[in-house]
Design goal:
Order of helices and strands: HEEHEHEEHHEEEEHEEHEE
Strand content: 15-25%
Number of strands: 13
Structural class: alpha/beta
Distance between the termini: 35 Å
Strand order of the largest sheet: 6-8-9-11-12-13
Radius of gyration: 20 Å
Largest sheet: 6 strands, mixed
Length: 326
Amino acid sequence: MNNDRVLQRILENFPSEHPSKSYIKLPSDIKFVPNGNEVEMIISKEAVRKNMQEDKASFEGWALVMKRWGGFDKVILNWDHQSFGKTKPEYGHYQRFLFRVKKFSCYFKSWFFVKPNGLPYQKSLLINDVSIYYLNRPSKDRCGDTEPQGEEGKESWLENKFVCDEWSEYLKNEVQAEFLDRQLPVGVFKDPGVTIKKKVSKENAIFARGKSAIDIWGISKANELLIFELKAEGNNKVGIITELYFYCCVMNRVQKGQFRYEKFDIPNIERIAKTKKIKAYFLAPALHPLIDKALVDLLNAGSAPDVEFHYISFANGIGNSLKVEY
């Protein structure tokens, strides 16, 4: 019932003539509890250990929706607290969740808050602000996907088109890129100390590893780090916000020297730490209807001053149709 009340509040502020209005819904794994001009978001125990791109796990995206479309002055995050054994697969997702909570509540502290009962659980985060951590490197061969197979395969095919194939020049020109590359991993690993030479290993992992990577990245002619979250036609989730925001938080730590690469045997990797700004792009034929310019402006207003978010649209299958929407 509370979710219905919040959804109704959103729809009252959403353009009545928009063709997608009747399809807008809230994720059932998040309970939205309104109280006057405040709303509490309660994330289920399943959602906190899920892939962050899923809408039910994207608290950052829904918090911005609550502020932008719900008109709430205060958004409070709560979640189903529990402990996770370090050997469980979901442990890395939960660590990443705690990292995201810390970063988002820091930058959007004027209106986004963690419920007091969740503050002690944030101490479970293994990443602090002073230690050094390591990232895994990309593979040496990241081009060659020629046939789209399924949603994930289609996006891999699109990445290849924009980085390694005939659409590369269109994207480079649009963002003034010196070069573009793809699949930059964002797994974070603790430093095991001087007694163990290999820092990046399964045993030292803090975040989920697997296929977690920035879709497309590069460096601009103005020495800005460029990162892109690419979605194929029809894949328009609110979770795209969480993905791109998380990548910016990780890369910002690289720029500041806290997150490092163990080796520089991949071209241009060492240059990331020397960039001075991040330009982050949603790259998709269309975004979720609740993600508009005003919401992205809200995202930019609260983010670090050296980070910018923009949206580039393209007609699916036509690389020369690129357009910076905002």
